[in-house]
Amino acid sequence: MPLVRFTDGDALRAWTLARRAAGQTVGLTPTMGALHAGHLSLVRAARAECDLTAATIFVNPTQFGPGEDLDRYPRNLEQDIALLESAGCDAVFCPAVETMYPPGAATRIEVGPAGSVLEGAIRPTHFSGVATIVLKLLNLAPANYAYFGQKDYQQTVVVRQMTRDLNVPIEVRICPTVREPDGLAMSSRNVYLQGEYRRQALTLHHALQAAQHAYAAGERNAARLRRAMEAVFAGEPQVEPQYAVLLHDGGVEEAHGELTGPTVAAVAAKVGPTRLIDNQLLSPGEPPA
Ligand code: AMP
Question: Which Pfam families match (predicted)?
Answer without folding.
Answer: Pantoate_ligase
